[in-house]
Amino acid sequence: MMADLVLLLPAVIGHGYLWAAYFNHTHSVPQPRWLMNASTAAGFACAVSIPVALGAGLVRGELDLLAVGPASPLGWLGRVYVAAAWMAGVVATVRWGWLRLLRRPPDVLRYDRTRPARGESPGPRDHHFFTRLPGNEILRLEIAERAVEVARLPEALDRLTIVHLSDLHFTGRVKKAYFQEVVRHSNAREPDLVAITGDVTDFPEWADWIPDTLGRLTSRHGVYFILGNHDVRSRPDRLRRTLTESGLVDLGSRWMPIEIRGERVILAGNELPWLRPAADLKRAPPRSPDGGPLRIALAHSPDQLRWARANDVDLLLAGHTHGGQIRIPGLGPILSASRLGVAYSSGTFHVPPTIMHVSRGISATFPLRFRCPPELVKLVLRTALRPIA
Fold it and tell me: CA-to-CA distance for 277 and 230, rounded, in angstroms?
């Protein structure tokens, strides 16, 4: 039995890895809500029941993992699954080592300063009872300032600032006053631009909050938004109209030029795979000899990094993953709604020619966050450092 337990441990790790991958992929593709709920429930049932059944068989002495051949109590399907879980366990261990031990901050990140938000907001008892669970960080907003070095940033745009907001998830479970505090903190940063990368509401009725919250955002050169997968369930046409009537600029499926400090900047939106098409940047102004104009794109999911690179985007802003929402000590996030898994769950990444910033988001549908607080991020764009002659 001890040998079986030793053999079972890597398979259990791989089992968890396989079903986490299933969850991440399932939540990264468009599908009806009922199918999403059903597939999530089925995946959870399999993820729990398989190791329980194997463990019970080992304890009762009915299962021998070392047995092979037609008489094996696992059967051929069970043996295939255990072997696949074993291999997945090896992959998961190597991947964890790379993500947690070997990966370094990107070369373009000048600094990353984070502090808890300070201000007045409703106490936990004014929100959903989940917010009162010990360790839940859903209301512990952090304010981050991150400076990134953009290779083709014109000198005139050095220190351009962008407040990046994502995944607000208006549901009523977290009260309006919390989001009004988020707006106050954003306005206090006095940004040049504000970018909202989707999932504003979960249900149509909560769009009524927008004029008193996002409608009060201020910036020097506009507040821009795209929609996310949860917005699709909230009458997206009506939601767009409410947002635009509140003074925000819709970037969904299009690109537009703006002028900042005498320099042209191209802003683009990508709501794939839930809303098509993405902005057609092939029709945007071509690059000049000095590299301009700067291209900034908003996408709901970090899965659109490939699209951004193919379209020579300088800066991609994304959300959707909530940073994993629950982070396990020593392991980090396990679930991240992306085909790429947890590799881009949150933070700053440099995959030339694109810098991607993935926000942990402002809230969540279910108000639970452990070791993964919400964040408001002020990005400061810096010109590339030049060697001293």
Answer: 17
| pTM, full prediction | 0.91
In angstroms, how far is CA 101 from the centroid of its own chain? 21
Q: Where are the alpha helices (DSSP H) in the chain?
A: 2-26, 33-59, 75-97, 176-188, 229-232, 236-245, 305-310
Q: How many CB atoms lie within 10 A of CB 272?
A: 17
The pair of three-digit structure tokens given for residue 383, joined into one six-digit string = 């010109």
Q: Would you kindly state where each structural domain of the chain is located, as residue ranges?
A: 2-102, 109-383
Spatial CA neighbour of 199 closest among 298, 277, 121, 268: 298
pLDDT in tens, 229-287: 999 988 999 999 999 999 999 999 999 999 999 999 999 999 999 999 999 999 999 99
Dmax over CA atoms of the chain, in Å, equals: 77
pLDDT tens digits along 340-384: 889 999 999 999 999 999 999 999 999 999 999 999 999 999 998
Q: Does domain 109-383 have CATH number 3.60.21.10?
A: yes
Cα 356 versus chain centre, distance = 11
